[in-house]
Amino acid sequence: RKEVEQDPGPFNVPEGATVAFNCTYSNSASQSFFWYRQDCRKEPKLLMSVYSSGNEDGRFTAQLNRASQYISLLIRDSKLSDSATYLCVVNQGYSTLTFGKGTMLLVSP
Amino acid sequence: EAGVTQFPSHSVIEKGQTVTLRCDPISGHDNLYWYRRVMGKEIKFLLHFVKESKQDESGMPNNRFLAERTGGTYSTLKVQPAELEDSGVYFCASSLRLAVNTGELFFGEGSRLTVL
Description:
The structure holds two protein chains of two kinds. By secondary structure, chain A is mostly beta strands. Chain A contains no helices and eleven strands. Chain B is built from one helix and eleven strands, in the order βββββββββαββ.
């Protein structure tokens, strides 16, 4: 089983749609969870942390389900500029942040 | 403020040659990380420096890879001799605090290595 698994997509959605991505992780001892965003041929950038109680940042909502070992990212009112690859990131130890392969989102007019 | 810079942006070498990648972290960031993305795979951790000390090098693939951070400023990653499977994008990242706690890794744009 991979350490961090994501559906690679692509998810094709029209502008204004709501879209959700899930990510599962294998290490039940993981304590830190994040979503990163990576534009084509660019570096990954932190989008948001994921807190146990769930958290929201504008149109983005992140949730954590420890029992099932998955995290989710919900994007409301999708914009063209949201088109990117969304990377699920989980800590696996003292130093290591483990990345998923990413889910590609394509928002069309 | 300058971000993380990496050099070269792209390197094409032949199998058996040596390549040295350089990373300049954000000024004041003691934590420096190397990651690698091989085509079709996820971004994988290679190693972590705190200042000039290697904190965790569990992700280094083999002894053909040598990372240094003399003086605790910039870092180099040398691949010698390069093999075909070393092709990929090598990302450097830095952080002020431990990234596993904050998630805040500032990545460079990466050095794309192609081994022919």
